[in-house]
Amino acid sequence: MWEEVHGFVKENHMLEDGDYVLAGLSGGADSVCLLRYLLWAQKKIHIKIAAVHVNHQLRGSEAERDERFAGRFCEYWQIPFAAVKRDVAEESARRRCSLEEAGRLARYDCFDMFAGKWGCNKIAVAHHKNDLAETVLFRMARGTSLRGLAGIRPVTGNIIRPLLCLTREKICAILNDLGQEYVEDSTNMDDAYSRNFIRHRLLPDMRRVNPAAVEHLAHISRQAAEIMDYLEPAFQKIYEENVLWKEDCCLLPLEAAALMHPAELSETVRRMIAAMAGGQRDISAVHVEQVAGLFGKRPGKYLELPFGLTAERKCEGVALLRREAYLQSRKDARQKAEEEAVRPQRVDMERLEREGSYEIDFPGGGHISFRLEEFHGGDIEKNDCVKYFAYDRIKSTLCLRSRKTGDYFVVDKGGRHKSLRRYFIDEKIPAGERDAKILLTEGSHVLWVLGGRISEAYRVEPDTKTVLVVRAEDKIIKSNSVK
Questions:
Q1: Annotation: CATH topology of 3-223
Q2: pTM of the prediction?
Q3: Short-list 463, 431, 132, CA closest to 302
Q4: What is the DSSP secondary structure assignment for residue 454, as one 8-state letter?
Q5: Rg of the chain in Å (alpha carbons)
């Protein structure tokens, strides 16, 4: 009765002479079947076996019953055994995850601990073909990728799954033929758990459509795993060549993302999230799509992800960083903007009209000059550092300052307005740099963003009588440029 399992084990190179295998033993049908197979395999391969039972402390006397059963089973078969109690409810609250996930984490934590303590080089768990089908459906419902369809692998690192070739029904039939008892977990009948709902509702309905539904889902999963294994080296190469790391932050440059096929971009983003999160579990297709979508957004846009991460669209690309690091960077950016913000300096209009010229010196060096000239038509100088304005249209005091809410340009002769905020967005000026830009304004009307555009409302026309010539030193224009 074990030939199918043993052939699967050999095909996937799960066991070799000299292995010391630690098996998870809940006392249920699956784990008991796993131990009975390993006991049989000892006659074929020189392996040692040990077992660990994890009591989740969720089911009171029933959990104690399961622990006693596992202990008696191992005592009868002379298998080294340890039982561990873990307060999974407390761990669920502390980790902010479901009871199912907290239980899984607790089990594998105990498996790793005892494998290290006893010198076991393999950990065997009792996943079977129905578990694989349920996992595929569960991930599809939550949103997954081709990688997610790969489901449960026969081997993951030092973890082996010898029963993955069997259905639950076949496992129960084997135990029945052996006359082997096992215990039932009453929570397995509670459809409030997502997997139980899939097990008791969805899969039976799918089997009414096709009795081989579980086999077909397992086949799809196997195909997805083969494709992902084939593509793995190419995806890893793309990831390593394009993702930049700096301390606890990674960034995918905009130009690199633009050259990627959508599949390459999605897989690169997934690897970035997994690297930052410390693992791939619970990374859904939705998370990947949201992060990849930031490449089409303006700089400054961000989104919060699970795993304590934030994704931010920067000028140079999309970055992933820890939320506390992101919040600190925003705080630092605000502080820097405040430090770099231009101290408002008013133009002495009376002196300008009386003397025909006026200069303002900046604390960081350099100055800006203002000069009035009569205009008799003809071409005007075109220079990033020099701008001409129709002085006749200026009605109040001019000011050199940083941006304020409500600032705007006039963008055409029809008088259509455009907000300064929209202009900065269109020019892809990072939010953290906008307060440092020097503006020449009349009230909320922006005449000129130094190094950028001017307002059409002040453009020199043939009927202009007097022009205001504003000249800024080259170093001011370069530091303020929005091009």
A1: Rossmann fold (3.40.50)
A2: 0.62
A3: 431
A4: B
A5: 35
Annotated binding residues for ATP, written as ranges, equal 26-31
Nearest-CA neighbor of 24 among 108, 85, 86? Answer: 108
Residue 190 has pLDDT above 80, yes or no: no
- Which residues have a Cβ under 8 Å from the Cβ of 417 and sit 6 or more positions away? 408, 409, 410, 411
243-339 matches 3-223 in CATH topology: no
State residue 202's pLDDT score: 87
Q: Are 364 and 449 in contact (CB under 8 A)?
A: no
CATH number of 243-339: 3.30.465
DSSP bridge partners of 173: none
Tokens of 24: 């998870």
CA angle centred on 47, ends 119 and 33, rounded to 5°: 100
Q: Give the tens place of pLDDT for each residue, 311-336.
A: 999 889 999 998 888 787 777 766 76
Q: How many residues does the chain have?
A: 483
Top-confidence residue, 205 or 123: 123
Tokens at 477, concatenated: 């224009």
Does pLDDT of 342 surpass 80?
no
Which residue ranges make up the annotated binding site? 26-31
Which is higher by pLDDT, 334 or 143?
A: 143
CA 451 to chain centre: 37
pLDDT digits (tens, 9 = 90+) for 19-54: 999 999 999 999 999 999 999 999 999 999 999 999
Ranges of each domain in the chain: 3-223, 243-339, 345-480
Alpha carbons 294 and 308: distance in angstroms, whole number: 18
- Sheet arrangement for strand 155-156: 81-85, 48-55, 20-24, 122-124, 159-160, 155-156
